[in-house]
Amino acid sequence: MCRRVCVVVEGNEELRKPQYLLPPFSKVVSHFGTSGLSVALATGVTHPLDVVKVRLQMQHVGQRGPLIGMTGIFVQLMKNEGFRSLYLGLTPALTRSVLYGGLRLGLYEPTKVSFDWAFGSTNVLVKIASGAFAGAFSTALTNPVEVVKVRLQMNPNAVPIAEVREIVSKEGIGALWKGVGPAMVRAAALTASQLATYDETKRILVKRTSLEEGFQLHLCSSVVAGVVSTLITAPIDMIKTRLMLQQGSESTRIYRNGFHCGYKVVRKEGPLALYKGGFAIFARLGPQTMITFILCEKLRSLAGLHTM
Fold first, then answer.
1. Radius of gyration for the alpha carbons in the chain, expressed in angstroms and rounded
2. Is 206 helix (H, G, I), strand (E, B) or coil?
3. Model confidence, pTM
4. Which residue intervals correspond to the Solcar repeats (predicted)?
5. Angle value at C-alpha 159, between 158 and 163, nearest 5 degrees
6. What is the enclosing helix (H) or strand (E) of 18?
7. What are phi and psi of 21, to 5 degrees?
8. Maximum Cα–Cα distance for the chain, whole Å?
9. Are 299 and 79 a contacting pair, CB within 8 Å?
10. From CA 10, how far away is CA 12, in angstroms rounded?
């Protein structure tokens, strides 16, 4: 049962309205479940683009050189490793989507409500802060699954459980949190830009155009959110991928941390190297953002929850 308080209207003892401090457990499950399911479905559709993105980001590590484009990497994968290679790491990707996606989207609104209660405001800065917290916290918990996913995407013969055992035995359990710093920064930037942009774009479109709550409003808002989040997170995503794929002891690693990785990439490969795989990121993140928000809004409606 939920804890509740009764508000007494002055002058009338009979008017007692129960106000629940905590929502029913079924609503909590629906809230996080719809978020996780929508992200998982979007991930399943766009996963091949994620594999291509990782391969693009790992070109010419530590040196300059001509880059193979997105189409070239795709053709190379199909020719050398076959169609199956486009779904490398799908199992941990879907696992992470349910956990990370459910937390990331699910924590945004409660965090925003908490900020509103504390500061009496839900302006765009509050939305950005709410998204940043939700993204960073979710990533800190689910980083091991992301590490395994990235490793599998670079190794067509690896098996998820075997890969986890190998990482722990050779590099220690701490290796499962490799790149967690940049990953948290990326997740904070992604969730803040994605959710805050979507939330604020919806508010502006409803206020200044004839669009009402529904598919068209969700589609327009999610397109804007996809573009903004890609521009902000592409360099951080690239650094995160490089760190996660590092192997060996600390003395043999190329990059010491996220800042060192960014510095060495810019110095040795040029500033544009930070946007390696940038088009692939947008080609994946754009549709993924649209699918996620449109599905989430529909699933929330079916579950009897209010819109985002």
1. 22
2. helix
3. 0.71
4. 26-114, 122-204, 213-302
5. 80
6. strand 16-20
7. -75, -30
8. 80
9. no
10. 6
Residue 168 contacts residue 228 (beta carbons within 8 Å): no
End-to-end CA gap in the chain = 26
Cβ-count burial 62-71 (b if 16+ within 10 Å, e if not) = eeeeebeebe
Q: Are 153 and 229 in contact (CB under 8 A)?
A: no
Given the structure tokens 């504390």, which residue do they identify? 118
Length of the chain: 308
| Token duo for residue 252 | 């043999």
Q: Say whether 98 sits in a helix, a strand or coil.
A: helix
Token representation of residue 302: 């079916």
Residue with tokens 């960014």: 262
What one-letter code names the amino acid at 5? Answer: V
Contact between 206 and 218 under an 8 Å Cβ cutoff? The reply is no
**How many C-beta atoms surround the C-beta of residue 299 within 10 A?**
17
CA distance 97 to 102: 7
Query: Which of these, 63, 64, 114, 35, lies nearest to 292 by C-alpha position?
Result: 35
Give the C-alpha separation, 292 to 36, whole Å: 9
| Amino acid letter for position 180 | V
CA distance 254 to 260: 9
Q: What does the pLDDT profile of the chain (308 residues) look like in tens digits?
A: 444 444 443 444 443 444 445 678 788 888 899 999 999 999 899 888 888 888 877 776 666 666 677 788 888 889 988 888 888 888 888 988 898 888 988 999 889 888 888 888 778 899 999 999 999 999 999 898 888 888 887 777 778 888 889 889 988 898 898 888 888 988 898 899 999 999 999 999 999 999 999 999 999 999 999 999 888 888 888 887 788 777 766 666 788 888 888 888 888 888 888 887 777 778 778 888 999 999 999 999 998 888 88
